[in-house]
Structure formats: structure tokens, C-alpha cells
Amino acid sequence: xxxxxxxxxxxxxPEPADVLEALQIGAxxxxxxxxxxxxxxxxxxxxxxxxxxxxxxxxxxYSDSRYYLDRAVAASGQSSSGPLAATLDALPGVxxxxxxxxxxxxxxxxxxxxxxxxxxxxxxYARDGTKLYAxxxxxxxxxxxxxxxxxxxxxxxxxxxxxxxxxxxxSGNLSMPEGMPVPAADNALILNEEEDGLSGHRLAAPCFxxxxxxxxxxxxxxxxxxxxxxTTAGASSLGDGAGGAVAADSSSWSRSSSGTPLVVWVQTRxxxxxxxxxxxxxxxxxxxxxxxxxxxxxGENQITLDVPVACQ
Length: 312
Fold this sequence. Notes:
By secondary structure, this protein is mainly beta. It is 4% helix and 35% strand. The chain folds into 3 domains: 4-135, no CATH class; 143-167 and 174-225; 236-306, no CATH class. The chain is built from 2 helices and 16 strands. A hairpin with a 5-residue loop joins β5 (118-125) and β6. The longest helix is centred in the N-terminal third of the chain and has 10 residues, at 16-25.
């Protein structure tokens, strides 16, 4: 992968930290007190995770703990007691785009931070003088997602990561997202582990689920979940409320191959009506969502099984 530093046209200008360091080295301790000049300062700055590489001739983002970052500064006009608002640093001569390693992901080699994440970067120097950038920002362990629709592949869904703090209280029925902001546009590709290897889509949209960020692909957060609310639209049927025909019904259903909700009619009891001399059967429909979870049972349908007649 080309070095993103090669694309910048201001290399002859020292970075602000380098200028300050050069000015302050002369004010460090006398030589007899130290083997060498002490560092004048620690170079730190705010940065924002980019959506794409620095260089236009580099197509792919990093897939490990390295990130392309835009150097940022605190935006002007904000209150000193308010939350930080960062904006891109457009100062001429400053290297705006750079590569930095997330120490929180270095050991496992993941790449889970979303574009737009604000981080605090610091510089490290190798023995040969090479400057490296690093930051320490643990990715979110679990996220709430809103499933908005079906993606083209089976078991894959479009959705949005819900962020912010909930304002839920103990009273009242649950009403998601309970005060948590939902982005205006999809920012996640959601993978339902239950549908591994299966075609179709078994989850309802919209609905909410809890999962974990497993990566970033094509600018979207990849979120793994294990199940959510199943869809009940477009159900298949086995049997009916009238008892069916005389011939055996060969229709079948399976969660894996059919991939649809199911309505199945089952006879739940049989009663002999002595007063009328009629044998009755009672049927109920059992509705299962596309995940195979029972979601509803109907009231009874009464059908006549037999009306005995006197022997001749």
C-alpha cells in the first residue's frame, strides 16, 4: 500500500509541534544535568476517522488496527463548558491526513471504529527518528441496531446503529428506541447469525436488535446479531379450518428451506354431543413467524366429524 505521506505537497513546512519543539529544546536542562535534551512537549492533537484513504490512488482502507485520520481542532464559537465539537484543521503547512494505530485494537488486529469517530492522537518516535502516530480508543462492545430492510443476500439486512443515551423510565410499556437517537440514513450492514447459509430473510423490518460491530465494509459498519423479531408476512399454510379433503396433504414446511412464516391448523379436542348425536372436532390455527417462533393461537373452529345413524 503506498505511503499516504507521499501525496502531501507541504513537506517542506515543519508541523506546528516540530516548530515548538525546536524552539524549546534550547531551554531544556543543561548538558551536565542530562545525557541529552529533554523533550520540550508531547505532541497530541484531535483527529477524526476518515471514510477513505488519504491518497486518491489508494482504493482500500486498512483492515487492521491502523486508521486514516484527518487532523482536527476544536471548532470556534463553542462554549468552554459544552461538549467538544471538532472540525478539520485547515491550517496551511499542516499535514491534514495521516495514518495512526489504535492501541486498543493492536493485539487482535481489528478495525471496528466508525468513520467520524473523534480520537486523541499522540506521536511516538522510533530510535531511528521515525515518527509514528497512535491513539487508544476501544470500539463499542455491543450496539443497538434498527433493522430497516433486507439486503440482497440471504440473512443480511440494512440498518442503523442507535447511539446516545436512553431516557427510559420504569413505568409504561417499552417503546424503542426509548429516547436514543436513530440516524437519518442507514449506516450498517446487519448479519443475522441464525440465517447462516440460508436464502431469504426471516426478520421483520423495522425492528430492533442487539449485536456487536464485527468490522467495516464499503463504508458500512458490519454488525453481527443472533435473531430479532421474526416476520409474519407472507405466511405458508398447512391445513385449514374446515378439516380439509379426504386425501392426505403432502405439503411440508421447514424453517431452513421454506423461509416463510407458517399457519398450521391442528385439531385440539374431540367432543361427543349426546343431545344431538353428533361427534364434533375443534381446530385451532397456530401461527409461527419465519424464525419458527410461535406468535399466535386462534380460537376454535367447530367441525362435524360424524353423525351416527341407526343400523338398518
